[in-house]
């Protein structure tokens, strides 16, 4: 998944309000960080150099990519609720144990799973054309004969409202332009409900992407309360445009849609946990995370194999280098993120008593492309410290610090929502949504050097925050 | 299709050998064009302005795109040998007649057609994974149970030779890197034969493309004489890399390949012809062309709907503006290009007696992206004239002239091979092979303004060459 407000897509205010733009880590005017604290952060410079040397040029070079490749090549996609995901979790758990990380274990999560079966969409009038498609997570099925119906093409919710009188008994095709993921994904998540309100029998949504090679994108959707649930799938940008052109010419279109899937009311999975236990404040937590589950298309290499693997590899790097901080670094490999942050929500519920000990929650779920800094969500005082830390990444050109008004993760938003500071890496993820939730989410997206940079930065940010004399201030 | 030596891929020598590079149309040192001829070419400037005004800003603006969209939306892919292509040819023929072009007719072509039926490839060991694939044109079938066999992955013909002792009874997977279309397409065209020589039972070729979203590419292949024909298909870049990684790890791979297709020994189609008959030398010909057939995936909008449509629209533009040149401009919309220039070869055979009257053959089969000049294959003396003509396209930044040592077209190569000058447009087709022979060859690739520029340039180049006082010199 990806949070709607992903940094490629939304406006963020930059920490550096003075003349110098946020490309450098020079302190902004309003940062009045006590000199001893600035000095303390700068004292981590030798550790920064040591970790970067070890991961970028030393024995760990290329290892995150190699581990991720072996993992995704072995298991492929890892839909929550499948035995394949559980096997994949066992495999990673074994890795974490073999690395002698602390307190390696799984924490049970229960949920209603969903799994696609046979599905297809065909334009049958005025000509026969297969429409590449992916049923959306949580969609209801058609009958086995499918739904054959006329078509109304709309380009927005407003356009749907204008054409509402024509919609009854029809399949609504959304050909909304792509603006940004955050602004456009509402058509995927709410398009079926909006169409059903006017009596549509199914909805086909143009995939949420700025670029397509006739590529359908999967994703989750939810029915609004009180509307009749109708089958809903994503089709390709190209086919949505084709249908729109034909519709505008006044051609009567008919589509045959067949969708079959199963719901599993008592699906079980696990969040996977490993730690480097803190020396003096083991009860205080810096959490570093990604999700192990994926959609059922592609190989889940980018979303979110990369994020999960830089998370646990960052702990292995620290362990190998004997770097044990004052506080505990806890690695969380979430499950069932794609179905709606189910693993993270279960974790929050199960760990209420210790949440006040959480100093920082870190996540990578927006690509592990070349990083160029830190995105942070929290207080300005905490941001000033993060800014100092970002300044340590000069040698890898990753000193940018952006203080976001919004959540900076998907799973970790459950923590951010209760005022726990959140962080992720800024990375060159301009093409993230080309691959997102498609068959093209494979190892071809992942670059060994970029993964090394991500692993090293995750190791260093979590280590420094976990080791500082002061907690990250919440206000 | 695309000729292997497409300009994006091969080194060409530039006409302008002097200090000024070939970006301008200034005459090269060795061009000693007689002043009256230079003056004559420059006298076409008002006509150039008139045609550009009419197509880019006047009543014809956007029409090529609109015509092409309506055509591809109506017919979709147009595989040679299908009724759909014949319907599409009827449709275009009707258009040409409605425009009152001269001598509109079809010329019969016979050939052995090939049509894919059900096909699939699955990795079945060590895990089950669908491999997106497209059987290659002319491939033999598997039995209905398919071929289940172990796998040898190679990265080149040399690598295949090194591993030849392991190949017997196996499926050979080619994971050759993409260098250029011209250099890499030999794996598609000859990979099956090379593998069969060592006893392989089937071959799977990494698709010939620099970029993929798990996109399989179709194409033609040919068996060498004397080898046992084995089934052959293209798989995706991503899957070829996946199989290669697993193979290198020593994992035993097994693939189940099922392919079914039909050969039609007596398929019939037509080359489509229209003319603007010359005023004083109607027997002399400037030919302007593209092919109407396509592969059976995608919509054939780029390959080669665009090329065919700028060809016939360029005649309509001239007709509408009352521009009738001294020589005849003949529009040829080839058939069965994808199966190996079958329409063009039949045409050559049927028109032997008039070939000495052909002044120039023009083709567009490498995309109708933004044009920036002319690519020419012929004598230096002719090139000097083409250079003068290119100079007329200053206002649209399309003055570049490249004299190619190789053929500059696919269909027209049959004419170029017998010393008839050939020309095509240079255009910004860097991404051509992203879409080539895939489901992504749709109207989304085509841009209205670029199509206008292509149509206008085709109209003007063919008009000026057809109208000059001198024939284009062959030596």
From TrEMBL, chains A, B:
It comes from the Eukaryota. GO terms for cellular component: endoplasmic reticulum; extracellular space; Golgi apparatus; lysosome. Pfam families: Peptidase_M28 (PF04389). One of its GO terms (molecular function) is metallodipeptidase activity. One of its GO terms (biological process) is proteolysis. Residues 271-458 form the Peptidase M28 domain. It is found in: Endoplasmic reticulum; Golgi apparatus; Lysosome; Secreted. Keywords: Carboxypeptidase, Endoplasmic reticulum, Glycoprotein, Golgi apparatus, Hydrolase, Lysosome, Metal-binding, Metalloprotease, Protease, Secreted, Signal, Zinc, Zymogen. InterPro entries: CPQ, PA_dom_sf, Peptidase_M28. Residues 1-18 form the signal peptide. The keyword Transit peptide does not apply. Homodimer. The monomeric form is inactive while the homodimer is active. Belongs to the peptidase M28 family. This is Carboxypeptidase Q. It comes from Cinara cedri.
